[in-house]
Design brief:
The complex is a heterotrimer of chains A (about 450), B (about 425) and C (about 400). Helix content of chain A is about 55%, strand content about 10%. Chain A is globular and about 65 Å long. Chain A is of the alpha/beta class and about 450 residues long. Chain A has 3 domains: about 140 residues, Nucleotidyltransferase, domain 5 (2-Layer Sandwich); about 100 residues, no CATH class; about 150 residues, 2-Layer Sandwich (Nucleotidyltransferase, domain 5), CATH 3.30.420. In chain A, helix 2 packs across helix 5, helix 4 packs antiparallel against helix 5 and helix 9 packs parallel to helix 11. Chain B is α/β, with parallel strands linked by helices and about 425 residues long. Chain B folds into 2 domains: about 170 residues, Rossmann fold (3-Layer(aba) Sandwich), CATH 3.40.50.11890; about 240 residues, Rossmann fold. In chain B, helix 4 crosses helix 6, helix 8 crosses helix 13 and helix 9 runs parallel beside helix 11. The N and C termini of chain B lie far apart (about 50 Å). Chain C is built from 14 helices and 8 strands. In chain C, the strands form 2 sheets. A 4-stranded parallel β-sheet of chain C has the order 2-1-3-4. A 4-stranded parallel β-sheet of chain C has the order 6-5-7-8. In chain C, strand 1, helix 3 and strand 2 form a beta-alpha-beta unit. The longest helix of chain C is centred in the middle third of the chain and has 27 residues. Classes of the chains: A alpha/beta (about 450), B alpha/beta (about 425), C alpha/beta (about 400). At the B-C interface, helix 7, strand 4, helix 8, helix 14 and helix 15 of B face helix 5, helix 6 and helix 13 of C.
Chain lengths: ~450, ~425, ~400
């Protein structure tokens, strides 16, 4: 039995959850698309954080077992990967059911037989691919079922479509089905999925090790992880089903979260989907000042999303491509509305994609620089958080501009920077539960 | 204006005064009264009353249209006629209203002007606004150029320039339009009434120095300045209104009560703020609620000084009638330079014991907005407090994003609260 | 032997791109004089000149610098010129200026004067509030006092008190400069193929940083070279450009308009240099003369109140005088004066049957495709309309 607290950051694009144990240590993280249903997003991210926490607890259990203490990492990694696959398959199953239902209502009876047949083939192919370790969905490509499934589905649909059933028809089914799948609770309990994953993974272990792993996992699965306190934050926090005392502004949460990650932090820059925030904090993570972008979302993460769509690229591909630039094209408009037009203009003028992208990243960071200046400047250390912090070209541009304008500054970017707000919220929850404890 | 739910007698009184004014305007052509369109900052109400003319204030009409959710339609109408989306929405709202029948806030048609009195004070757009109206009406225009306090002072030359214009431009045109002679004694009488009301207004605004503050000096403040900044300065009604208001505030003060809001009396005072910049009119109540529901009260604001910074000591002085009008015009808030504005805000933060200050930046109004980010920085430096910054517009509903504004305000209030907590923890340690 | 055209234009181009004000620094070093900046439209440069101070025109940084700090001071709905001006100042590029004058263009530039006072407390800063009353005894008296006030300030700044005869001499020098500018504009209206707008613009802009005497020589040289240059006549649509009196369009925009088939035969670019139409009198009290010239012979523009002249009268007479076939409204985004004025001018043009088109720019605009298409279509269409 351990007592946990949870922080949920309901962002405009993604919803994040961080679970802490009684010592204020992070034991689990979860992330999901925010969708239109914020309640569901909050609960899904929580489910994922709890599942994730069980793997942490599992690791701790194994630490205590002398027999497997020094040799369990490969097993744990395999288990976790298999667990994810089980979740994926389960969602895929749901997608197949919804897809066939949609096909039925789209083209009922005999008329839809061909469509349903193609769908059956398509989903079976997706399942086969998922099972095949070489063709497994690329975990790096995206963290979300929608994106993984979409990429696979679209690729297969191209092959499967024919004169009888068009590509567009198949895609229309997907678009309807995915919305339904996303908007229903994740029908995969930890126990069920982990058991299947365990059965799969222990086959290659000795009996002794298999028994110990199973026993540890039994214990972990039985632990009650339901958080004692939950604090919500983020863009959509007002829509969280929480009482007001359980809500904190994302400014306070990002400040505290960044401080927890890097105690030397004095300035925080967060570039999220809809908002850019420049925050100044003191040595305790207390916010001393902040500024947010003006009313339009120009220069926020959403802008990169539009650009990625416009260029037919994955969001994560933009940064690395921009890093290949030899120069940066000057971009004046970071307006999301004009992003597409400006981009097309530039391409027509014969500019290289890489150079335009470098210019776009710089334009975004220039907006952030103005906001940082408004908030009081950049003090050592600067911690960069939010979705855009995982974009290497944005990080490069920031590092360069900060150096040019403020001199040498330590630039912190945590691999889990996207969880900064949720971490801050969780730390507030921890304070509520254990007042006076260091957070 | 739409009023708070619990109506106090002064509120009723103001409502009656306004209704009466619009009735007189509607009947102006029949009663033979002359109508003068003019602006709030640098308005010459006493002089107009001395000529027995009725003022119409297009800014007030625009803000009323905003409060009555008509401005979006009017602005669209003006933009359809070629007005840029980039420029002041007060102007576009007014032009749109004009093109839609010129129906005033009480549902009655506004009379056409007999004179456009262009009191060019503290706002460049005023000039263009009346040039635009001049295209619509075949009536004379009297231009009163009020020089800007670029160096932060009113010089003798500036004052005499304004007085010269009153003598050679404004008064002759009023005489021509009304067929009356300029009557200085009548003007002096009205100036004396103004000064009396001004004393009470200042007392009311300064009551916010008490804890809890019995008034909200921004959202509530716009009601309190209504009669003073519009057509009732220099009238017995005006004097009476401010006497009543003062008594009401006094009694709230005696009972230790906070401000009255549209949703009833405000709860516990948690944050005391100074606000720079005009309010938003299309979502006025919603905007106010974002403050009062969090226990935030505005203890001083600069917007309530656009029609005169009376709390710095200026009073209309019957002994020097034209000079006093000149000083009044020259001293309006939007005619002050940035260093003076920063100084005034700093003083408000200190004298009113504010926990923070907030800048409400308005797209329409460059007179206010250009430079506000430097004001923010400068004030932070001088007061040691972090400032808040939110953006919207006067009457363009497209520019008020409630979620966005609320997010920033909540974050700001929570920051104050957190700092306070940290301060208390330090004190304990 | 006169200077070759290309050499003059190259020099003007170098000065245009001299955002570090190297030219001003050099002049200061050479003459030992001080320098005072001024924002667009009208300041009485004669008074500055008479105090042995170099007046330096500040017209933003165009597309030649990246604004990094300036954006921290302005909301997204404010035009570009104050941002780049602040950027120039904060990056030390305006350090050679001993003061700055801010004319009454609009509320943004007005407030910029206060920002200057806060940001650079050690520098001389003045808001130049020109009169909007044109009675000699009222606005005239006020303006004369303002001019004297400025003269006193300039004298204190330079240590060289302004004497009447020196001011008269300065007026003379500027009269000559204005006459040459007038000649340049006349030549362009008469034989536009000889004077591409972007060239003329660069030569006019050079007056921002050159001592006026030197600028007049450049104008003379350019006029001589342009008149004798071998540039065959061409037929393009003739337009007047309006709205660019403060924040300046990027050079690329002017080139785009001409390449799209428009001869710009009239404009309000660098308007302050041509503010007074005709000579300022050299007789009598020179302050009075400057004031009278302002009251009676100022150009018509959106920042100035005109009590009597009907809206658009001046624009229409420019169109007639230059034989223009249409008007291009070319205003900076968020420019209150230009954009509030525009509907009134459009109405006036409608009444006269003069065609027009309109677009907006920012001084750092980088792509002109849309404008090229729009201007091209406009140029073609007015050619069609004007054919018999």
């Amino acid at each position: 039995m351990i007592t946990t607290v949870l922080g949920v950051d309901l962002g405009s694009t993604t919803t994040k959850a961080v679970l802490l144990d009684e010592n204020g240590e992070v034991i689990g993280r979860g992330i999901t698309n925010s969708r239109s249903n914020y309640d569901l997003a909050a609960s899904l991210s929580k489910v994922e954080a709890l599942a994730n926490a069980r793997f942490t607890l599992f690791e701790r259990e194994l630490e205590r077992d002398e027999t497997v203490r020094d040799d369990n990492e490969t097993f744990r990694t395999a288990l976790q990967r298999r667990f994810r696959l089980e979740q994926y398959l389960s969602q895929l199953k749901s997608l197949r059911e919804r897809g066939l239902q949609e096909a039925e209502s789209l083209r009922p009876g005999a008329a839809g037989a061909a469509l349903r047949k193609r769908l059956e083939d398509l989903f079976s192919a997706m399942e086969r691919r998922a099972q095949n370790p070489l063709a497994r969905p690329d975990a790096k490509r995206s963290e979300f079922f929608r994106d993984e499934a979409n990429a696979q589905y679209a690729r297969l649909a191209e092959d499967i479509a024919d004169k009888e059933v068009s590509y567009d028809q198949l895609l229309a089914v997907f678009d309807k089905a995915i919305v339904r799948v996303e908007n229903e609770p994740l029908d995969v309990s930890f126990e069920a999925a982990i058991r299947r994953a365990l059965d799969f993974c222990i086959r290659r272990e000795t009996l002794e090790r298999a028994t110990r792993f199973s026993a540890a996992l039994e214990r972990v699965a039985a632990v009650d992880l339901e958080p004692a306190v939950t604090i919500g934050t983020g863009y959509g926090r007002a829509r969280l089903p929480f009482p007001k005392e359980q809500i904190r502004s994302e400014i306070l949460c990002h400040g505290l979260g960044a401080h927890a990650l890097y105690p030397g932090t004095r300035t925080v820059l967060d570039i999220g989907g809809q908002d850019t925030k420049a925050i100044q904090v003191d040595g305790h993570g207390i916010v001393t000042g902040f500024q947010m972008n003006d009313r339009c979302a120009a220069g926020c993460g959403r802008y990169l999303g539009y650009i990625a769509d416009e260029m037919n690229l994955g969001l994560h591909e933009l940064g690395p491509l921009a890093q290949q630039a030899t120069r940066h094209v000057k971009i004046n408009s970071t307006c999301t509305v004009f992003a597409g037009a400006e981009l097309r203009d530039r391409l027509t003028l014969g500019e290289r994609r890489e150079d335009i992208l470098a210019g776009l990243h710089r334009a975004i960071i220039l907006r952030a620089m103005a906001l940082l200046a408004r908030s009081g400047g950049v003090f050592d250390e600067l911690t960069f958080t939010g979705g855009v912090a995982s974009n290497p070209a944005a990080v490069d541009a920031l590092g360069k501009l900060v150096h040019e304008n403020y001199g040498r500054r330590t630039l912190n970017i945590s691999p889990s920077s996207i969880y900064t707000g949720a971490l801050g919220a969780a730390l507030f929850a921890h304070r509520v539960r254990a007042p006076g404890s260091p957070a | 204006m739409s009023e708070p739910a619990r109506k106090e007698p002064s509120m009723e009184k103001q409502k009656d005064m306004i209704a009466g004014h619009f009735r007189r305007l509607a009947a102006a052509k029949e009663s033979g009264k002359k109508v003068v369109y003019t602006f709030v900052p640098g308005n010459l109400t006493e002089l107009l009353l001395a000529f027995d003319v009725l003022p119409v204030l297009p800014e007030i009409n625009a803000l009323q249209s905003g409060m009555r959710q008509l401005s979006g339609k009017y602005i669209a109408e003006a933009e359809k006629r070629g007005h840029s989306e980039d420029v002041c929405t007060y102007v576009k709202c007014d032009i749109g209203m004009l093109k839609s029948g010129n129906i005033g806030p009480t549902g009655e048609k506004l009379p056409e002007p007999d004179l456009l009195l262009l009191s060019y004070t503290g706002c460049f757009t005023f000039m263009k606004w009346f040039e635009l109206l001049k295209q619509e009406y075949s009536c004379p225009v009297a231009m009163l150029h009020v020089p800007y306090q670029g160096d932060g002072t009113i010089t003798r030359e500036m004052r005499s320039y304004v007085v010269d214009q009153l003598r050679s431009e404004v008064i002759p045109k009023l005489e021509a339009v009304t067929g009356r002679r300029y009557d200085e004694a009548a003007l002096q009488e009205k100036l004396a009434l103004s000064a009396r009301a001004e004393d009470d207004l200042v007392w009311v605004l300064q009551s916010a120095k008490h804890r809890p503050s019995p008034i909200d000096a921004y959202f509530g403040g716009v009601y309190y300045i209504g009669p003073m900044f519009s057509s009732f300065r220099g009238t017995g009604d005006g004097v009476e209104y401010y006497r009543m208001l003062r008594a009401e505030v006094q009694s709230r003060l005696d009972r230790g009560e906070g401000p009255v809001t549209p949703d009833g009396p405000m709860g516990k005072e948690r944050y005391r703020l100074v606000v720079e910049g005009p309010p938003n009119w299309t979502s006025f109540r919603e905007f106010w609620k974002m403050f009062h529901s969090e226990g935030a009260v505005v203890v001083a604001s600069t917007y309530t000084k656009v029609g005169g910074v009376y709390d710095l000591g200026f009073r209309h002085d019957p002994a020097r009638p034209l000079e006093t009008l000149a000083d009044y015009c020259l001293g309006c808030y939007t005619n002050l330079n940035l260093p003076t504005r920063v100084g005034l805000l700093e003083r408000y933060v200190r004298e009113y014991g504010a926990d923070g200050f907030l800048i409400h930046s308005i797209k329409s109004c460059n007179s206010f907005s250009a430079g506000q980010l430097l004001i923010l920085r400068e004030l932070e430096k001088r007061t040691g407090l972090a400032g808040g910054f939110v953006e919207s517009d006067l009457v363009d509903p497209r520019y008020f994003s409630p979620a966005n504004v609320k997010n920033r305000l909540e974050s700001y209030f929570q920051m104050i609260e957190q700092k306070r907590g940290a301060g208390a923890a330090e004190a304990r340690a | 032997m006169s200077q070759p055209l290309s050499e003059i234009v190259d020099r003007a181009d170098t000065l245009y791109n001299d955002i570090d004000l190297a030219q001003v620094r050099a002049t200061k070093e050479r003459t030992g004089h001080r320098a005072v900046g001024y924002m667009p439209i009208y300041v009485p440069r004669e008074v500055v000149h008479a105090a042995a101070i170099l007046p330096v025109g500040l017209m933003g940084a165009g597309d030649r610098i990246e604004v990094i700090r300036g954006d921290a001071y302005f909301q997204s709905y404010i035009c570009q010129i104050p941002r780049s001006t602040i950027e120039l100042a904060l990056t030390g590029r305006l350090d050679c200026l001993d003061g700055c004058l801010f004319p009454s263009i609009c509320d943004v530039i007005r407030n910029l004067s206060g920002m200057w006072q806060l940001l650079f407390p050690g520098k001389y800063t003045r808001y130049v509030d020109v009169p909007q009353n044109y009675e000699r005894a009222v606005g005239g008296r006020y303006w004369e006092e303002e001019l004297r006030h400025l003269a006193r300030d300039m004298g204190e700044l330079s240590g060289h008190a302004v004497r009447d005869d020196e001011l008269r001499a300065s007026i003379d020098v500027y009269n000559r400069n204005r006459r040459l500018l007038g000649e340049l504009y006349r030549l362009r209206a008469e034989e536009p193929w000889r004077v591409p707008t972007w060239e003329a613009y660069l030569v006019v802009r050079a007056g921002n940083v050159l001592p006026v005497e030197e600028h007049s020589r450049m104008l003379e040289d350019y006029l001589a070279a342009a008149r004798s240059a071998d540039r065959p006549p061409r037929d393009q649509s003739r337009v007047v450009v309006v709205g660019s009196f403060c924040e300046q369009p990027p050079l690329g925009l002017l080139k785009t308009l001409e390449r799209a088939g428009c001869f710009i035969v009239g404009d309000d670019l660098v308007l302050g240099a041509r503010w007074i139409e005709g000579d300022v009198s050299l007789e009598g009290d020179p302050f009075r003369a400057l004031s009278d010239a302002f009251l009676t012979r100022s150009v018509s523009t959106a920042s100035r109140y005109e009590a009597t002249a009907p809206k658009g009268q001046s624009l229409i007479s420019t169109v007639r005088r230059t034989h223009a076939e249409g008007v291009v409204f070319c205003a900076p985004s968020f420019c209150d004066p230009a954009l509030l004025e525009q509907p009134m001018l459009e109405q006036a043009l409608d009444r006269e049957g003069i065609p027009y088109t309109a677009f907006k720019y920012a001084e750092n605009l980088g792509q002109f495709q849309v404008i090229r298409e729009q201007a091209g279509t406009f140029a073609d269409s007015i050619k069609l309309w004007s054919e018999p």
